[in-house]
């Protein structure tokens, strides 16, 4: 592997790290005594901040998943009443039946929570914070203070979003995309009142959190790698998190501008998105705005967003797969190149969400071409994962099973993306259950599989204990089967033109054929939800009672995070930061099962 272009940069960073180490008494802690508040709440240690992101994300995941259980109950049993719902939700579930306005609120909040607060904040916030300094050989992030702020903006956004569930008019209910004019007019419905304002402010805070984190991740990766850690020696996890951060830095500000203009339209009487609107017979004075402008601003983030979610999962899966197949990752540079290609193309396909917005079909054709092109780097990754598995000496740990499950979901969910990327088909199935089936499999569930894979694999490094394997296996098989049983049948509903976001289908005789299927999907949803609660139990129980890690490197892995103590202090390495001599994937080489990155290269060694 080539040496770093500028070794002096790394030498300087190394000296700076050692100065940091001297200042911190060599034990990883500063001179001042740490209190509960400085250690667990306002912590500037990247490892603690990653745990804060992870646990906040898990709480949100439970709330978001519970919402899906509630609206699935409505879809499966539209005429039944469940008295417990009235006890829990009061007038939102009058007579034990979820009310239409609450149903739309549930759907809006479910999408917002899962896409942004769990799969963006929870996934990137956890693993970028945890792995970047440990895998590149840094004491901490470039700016630990900015890193702490990033979490607290995320927490503030969470509090504001959660508070919108308790206002008298209910939460935002214009869909997770919040298209105007519905989201821009307070008089449109109850869900467009104060709940919508709180939603926009929470999302603005979330964007600030993502930008603070992203700038930190990029500057840390570019400037703080240890001696010998050239870019081409970085693990694929770091490459994936690097490109994810760049995507966020370039696309989130556009979404923020879209939200600010929406707040202006709602509260200051402007007309960025409003024109020629009549509400209840009254002609509104707004002129000259365009709701399509909002769609462009939203989807300019909204499409890179799906890669902001899936790229970290791809990085985690690549790493776990190589470690547990006991083989070097196949096609390292092709993997990096495909991550780069996805990052570029992610910015050029946003209008495929807008084929039915009245877009010129000629312009649409360009977006069809670019959308289908993005399948190429995705396919390269899939072939490389399969080739890494081929004839490997595979250890089926829970993390490895989730990594393999990720590839399965990514292939089967990605195939339907080829249908939807084609405008002639998309126009017919847009806003049907086909779209729900596609993006839940390829982006939702597979990103969760990447997240689970990372949690099971790095849990010993996070907490110094192992999670329970038996519960891990039950969690994997139940979730994989459940995910396919829930979302695969929805493709057929979509092809039969069953529209998404509808509250009740019983007045359409053509959709009544799916009554039993809706019941089946709902029962499976409840089972899968209970399995996730089992995972949460396993997680928290294992923090305190799990089997203790006895060795520094329990997975026999080559990367730097396993050269730290079992429970690393603030600063990660008690002595000098190790120097790197080789790439991250020397497995099954020269008769040895693995060779750590820190081991100097023997001149007689075979080239990988």
UniProtKB/TrEMBL annotation:
Principal location: membrane
SUPFAM superfamilies cross-referenced by the UniProt entry: Cytochrome c oxidase subunit I-like
GO MF terms, alphabetically ordered: cytochrome-c oxidase activity; heme binding
Segments crossing the lipid bilayer: 53-73, 102-128, 149-167, 198-218, 238-264, 297-317, 329-350, 362-387, 399-421, 433-459, 471-490, 520-541
Subcellular localization(s) per the UniProt record: Membrane
Stretches of the chain forming a coiled coil according to its record: none
GO biological process: aerobic respiration; electron transport coupled proton transport; respiratory electron transport chain
The entry's keywords: Electron transport, Heme, Iron, Membrane, Metal-binding, Respiratory chain, Transmembrane, Transmembrane helix, Transport
Annotated membrane topology: Multi-pass membrane protein
Domain Cytochrome oxidase subunit I profile: from-to ranges: 36-599
Top-level taxon: Bacteria
GO CC annotations, alphabetized: membrane
The UniProt record lists the keyword Transmembrane helix: yes
Entry's family note: Belongs to the heme-copper respiratory oxidase family.
UniProt protein name: Cytochrome C oxidase
Originating organism: Flavisolibacter tropicus
């Amino acid at each position: 592997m080539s040496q770093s272009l500028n070794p002096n940069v790394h030498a300087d960073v190394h000296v700076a790290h050692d100065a940091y180490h001297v200042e911190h008494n060599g034990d990883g802690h500063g001179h001042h005594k740490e209190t509960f508040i400085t250690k667990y709440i306002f912590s500037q240690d990247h490892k603690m901040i990653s745990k804060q992101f992870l646990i906040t994300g898990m709480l949100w995941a439970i709330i978001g998943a519970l919402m899906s259980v509630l609206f699935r109950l409505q879809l499966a049993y539209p005429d039944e009443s469940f008295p417990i719902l009235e006890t829990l939700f009061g007038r939102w579930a009058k007579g034990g039946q979820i009310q239409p306005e609450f149903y739309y609120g549930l759907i809006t909040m479910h999408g917002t929570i899962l896409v942004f607060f769990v799969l963006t904040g929870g996934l990137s916030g956890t693993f970028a914070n945890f792995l970047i300094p440990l895998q590149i050989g840094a004491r901490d992030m470039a700016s630990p203070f900015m890193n702490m702020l990033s979490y607290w903006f995320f927490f503030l956004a969470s509090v504001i979003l959660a508070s919108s569930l308790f206002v008298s008019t209910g939460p935002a209910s214009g869909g997770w995309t919040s298209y105007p004019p519905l989201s821009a007019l307070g008089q449109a419905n109850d869900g467009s009142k104060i709940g919508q304002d709180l939603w926009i402010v929470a999302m603005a805070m979330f964007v600030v959190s993502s930008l603070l984190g992203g700038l930190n991740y990029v500057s840390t990766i570019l400037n703080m790698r240890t001696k010998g850690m050239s870019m081409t020696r970085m693990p694929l996890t770091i490459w994936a998190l690097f490109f994810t951060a760049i995507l966020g830095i370039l696309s989130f500000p556009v979404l923020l501008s879209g939200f600010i203009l929406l707040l202006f339209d709602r509260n200051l009487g402007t007309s960025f998105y409003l024109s020629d609107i009549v509400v209840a017979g009254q002609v509104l004075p707004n002129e000259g705005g365009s709701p399509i402008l909002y769609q462009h601003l939203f989807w300019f983030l909204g499409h890179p967003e799906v890669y902001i979610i899936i790229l970290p999962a791809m990085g985690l899966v690549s790493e776990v797969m190589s470690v547990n197949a006991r083989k070097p990752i196949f096609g390292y540079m092709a993997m990096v190149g495909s991550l780069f290609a996805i990052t570029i193309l992610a910015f050029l396909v946003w209008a495929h969400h807008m084929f039915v917005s009245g877009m010129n079909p000629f312009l649409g054709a360009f977006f069809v071409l670019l959308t289908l092109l993005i399948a190429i780097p995705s396919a390269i990754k899939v072939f490389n994962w399969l080739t890494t598995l081929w004839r490997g000496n595979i250890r089926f740990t829970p993390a490895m099973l989730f990594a393999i499950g990720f590839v399965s979901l990514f292939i089967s969910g990605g195939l339907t993306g080829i249908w939807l990327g084609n405008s002639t088909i998309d126009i017919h199935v847009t806003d049907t259950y086909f779209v729900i089936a596609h993006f839940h499999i390829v982006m939702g569930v597979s990103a969760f599989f990447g997240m689970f894979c990372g949690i099971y694999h790095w849990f010993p490094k996070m907490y110094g204990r192992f999670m329970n394997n038996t519960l891990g296996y039950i969690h994997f098989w139940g979730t994989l089967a459940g995910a396919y049983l829930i979302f695969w049948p929805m493709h057929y509903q979509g092809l039969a033109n069953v529209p998404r976001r509808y509250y009740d289908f019983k007045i359409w005789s053509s959709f009544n054929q799916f009554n039993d299927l809706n019941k089946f999907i709902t029962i499976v949803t409840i089972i899968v939800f209970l399995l996730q609660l089992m995972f949460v139990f396993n997680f928290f129980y294992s923090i305190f009672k799990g089997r203790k890690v006895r060795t520094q490197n329990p997975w026999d892995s080559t990367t730097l995070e396993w050269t730290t103590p079992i429970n690393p202090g603030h600063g990660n390495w008690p002595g000098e930061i190790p120097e790197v001599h080789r790439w991250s994937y020397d497995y099954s080489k020269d008769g040895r099962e693995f060779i750590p990155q820190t081991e100097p290269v023997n001149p007689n060694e075979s080239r990988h």
